[in-house]
Structure formats: C-alpha cells, structure tokens
Amino acid sequence: MNKWSKISIILVIILISPVVLAQQRFPKPEFESEYTQPSPTIPEPRSISLEYFDIFVLLAVLTVAAWFILKSRSRKGLLWLSVFSLIYFGFYRKGCICPIGAIQNVALSFSDPGYTISLIVLAFFLIPLILTLFFGRTFCAAGCPLGAIQDLVIIKPLSMPSWLRKPLGIIPYIYLGLAVLYAVTKTDFIICRYDPFVGIFRMDAPFHMVILGISFLLMGMFIARPYCRFLCPYGVLLSWMSRFSKWHLSITPAECIQCKLCTTSCPFDVIEEPTKEKIEPGSRIYLRRFILYALFIPLWVVIGGYTVSRASVILARANQDVYLAELLIAHPELREDPDNIDIQIFLASGKSMETLVEEAQVIQKNFRTGSWILGGFLGLVIGVKLMNQVIFRRRNDYEPHRGDCFSCGRCMDYCPVK
User: Fold this and answer.
1) Does residue 122 sit in the same domain as residue 198?
2) Among 121, 130, 331, 342, which is 20 to 30 Å from 321 by CA?
3) CA distances (Å), 22 to each of 16, 28, 29, 284, 410, in order?
4) pLDDT tens-digit profile of 291-330?
C-alpha cells in the first residue's frame, strides 16, 4: 500500500467518524410505552416562493374587490371572490398567515429587539390597511376567510338597536388591547389560540373550539358577522383606516331617491339616514355637550388606567412563569408531584427558584405598566365615543358609515338607481 492510499484511508475515516459517533451519541428514540407522536397544530412551513405567491394572491383579491366595489358595482362578483378567499386562505392555507393574527407579531417586534418579524407576516399585516386607506374595507368584503364563512350563513339577519350595538362595539378594542398586552409580555398569542374558525379550516380543533366556531356560525344566521362586528381586533384598525379612505363604496351611483331599500338590505346596521331637520348641528346645547365630553376625556383615561391596573395581577397569571412561581410559593410540596408536567419541566431545566421568582416579578411589573396603558386606551375610546354622540355631519342622502361598513355590496344590489 503506497503513501497516498494510506492518506486516503485516513481521510475517509476522519470524514465518516463524526457520523458514526453522532449515531452513537444520539440514538433514535424508542418508545416502549403507549406514547403516540402528537399531530402538529400549525401548518408546516412553506417555501419562500409560495409565501410570496400568497402575497400576490392577497393583492390580487383586494384589487379585484376594489374594482367590483367602485367600478363594476357587483355584489355577485364580491360574493364569488369571498368564496375563493375562503377556499384559498381558509381551507387551503388553513387560516395562516392572516392579518388578524399578525397584530401580535408586529406588537412583539416593537417590544422585543431580539424578535425579528418575517417580511411575509409584515406584508400581510400592512397590505389590507394600506388598501383600506384608499378603497375602504375591501379585505372585509372579499379577502378575509373569517368574514367569508360568516357571510355565507346569513339567513335572516335581525336589526340590533343602537343602545345594544354601540356598547358591544367596545369589545373589539378590549380584545385588541389584551392581544397586544399578552404579545409584548411574551405570554401568549390569544388571537390565534381563540380563533373560532381556524380549527374548522384545519379540521383539528379541540372540542371546545369546535363548539365555539359552530356557535358563531349559528349566531351568524341571525346576527350578521358577529365575530367581525363585536370581536375582531383587526377590524378596529381597518375601521380607523376606512374613515379616511379616499374612495369608498357608495350606495347609489347617481342621485338618491330616498327609497330606503338600502336600510333593509344591510344586515350590519351601518346605513346612516339623512340628517333630520330638527337637529341643529350648531346649536348651543350640542356645543356645550361636546365641550363637556371633551374635557372629561382625560378623566376617562385616568379612570380606565387605574381600573385595569388593579387587575394586572390576575392578567399576569396567564403567563407561564408567573403562574408557576405563584404555584410553587403557595404549594412547595408540589415539587414532589411527578404528574405535574410543568413543574417537572421546570425542575429538569436546572433553573433555580430564585431565578424563576425574579423573572416572574419582572413580568408582573411589565403587566402593571401595560395594564395602565391598556386601561388608558380603553378610557380614551369610551371618551371619544361619547363625544361622537354630539358630533353631527349633515347628510342629504342615505350613506354607509365609512368606518363600520364592510363594503359587502348588498346595498348596491338593492338600489334601484342605475
């Protein structure tokens, strides 16, 4: 055997030995018990090209929806486009990525410098908002699978009185604030966890989520789009953008004939009637109320911040570290409980109890600060909504509310003016 042959053999041994050693160090696990490998609860990662294709599809859907709303004025076109979104973004893409859940990723990226948000997620979050600023809520009209699945089950929608509808309209702001608070504290992504329809899209929801999704659909037969109107946190952002949209759905393409058919066609109670003559927008009584409500806004902010901050201890318990620290402090005997998986994982991690308590205290402090901000935000929302009760804009025709209108096109379809 010559010199080069020996060198070749040595090189082969050097190259193969790490693989052999790795196989010896990390043998394939064998489960002799009744353990079964759990099924994944999130969709598998896709190639970057397919993710960019998803963005292209989203842009195409929203662009075509804007054309159906502003040019073609076609309710039927919007309906079939929403069915496509339900099939593609809902059942095919399994509800992920969605702009609604992306709120949490964006919030976490602002609070944690070590967290890098995906450009795909950021695009899904921003594109509907930007297009809403120009064309109204086209995402709600035809791009959102959650809205589409609810829209298809509307059978006999009931009109809700304003005294009930307006207080319920506060809930999306609460949900938005809680979602941001839990995201920035790295506690949970509650929008994704409690999405009532994603389990239907993936066909693997827990029983209680199946019940929740079915309940929303049954409710949606009579209360149109209950999730969109009274829970969706992304709808809050879309409503803000839509109020300033450059172009927006109009009920009639020409002069309104005051037939009132649009009011009966809208299942969402967002058609605003012409201003009644008895209302004097410039009268002193409304001016005094406006000034009074405006002066009370700082007080609402303080009251809201203080009230929610009092609940920060309860809110913080949703965090795993806080919950575990309080549990071990109150019940130290649970350290010996082999059936408590959370405690056994903590003990196996090698982390000391002192470290866990210190981390929990930092998280509780963040919750106190975040709860003040959340409460102040909710107080501001309540104050502004009260002030809006005495702000009137003169209307001569029936018009959709620019913020709350989903641009579904039903009113266009009913309007006899062509």
Assistant:
1) yes
2) 121
3) 10, 11, 14, 83, 64
4) 888 999 999 999 999 999 999 999 999 999 999 999 999 8
